[in-house]
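Amino acid chain
________________
===
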Amino acid sequence: MADEQTTPTKQLILQKIYIKDLSFESPKAPDVFRIESDAQTQTQLNMRSGHKDIGGDNVEVTLTMTAEAKNNEDVLFLVEITQAGVFLMQGYTPEERQMLIGSFCPATLYPYAREAISDLSTKGGFPPLLMQPINFDALYAQAVREREQQQQQVAPAALQPLTGPGDPH
């Protein structure tokens, strides 16, 4: 029994969750509230995540979301939030850590950011902005595939010899 190798215990613990940055703008208020109720409002959501090691096995992961509502070219409101969390990660391989940082952690932060955006749009005088759940596992897998494709396209081009018009190759 004493000779058996023990595998390190895997732990993923959310240590802290917080808003790192938050902004709400309604540049045309109060005139914006005079828009007819049948107006066509378009909402665009942009999202990105990032991370940094902060010591020990702790990683700060951030999820930045920008929601912009427009009527034609007029901006009704713009909300930007950077939701952050500190995650303790122990016993994971580098590949597993990357997957957790790129998928699990942003998925954990998303409901907090979604609630803040909805709350701010309401406090800004607009209807709540209801955002659908997001499959972060699928987004992460897509990003990995795209990165691999880019690396495959760059690598063969780097290995090809340079030839000129008079070169026999």
In short: Residues 26 and 124 are 8 Å apart (CA to CA). Strands lie at 11-25, 41-55, 58-71, 74-90. Residues 94-123 form the longest helix (30 residues). The chain is about 30% helix and 35% strand.
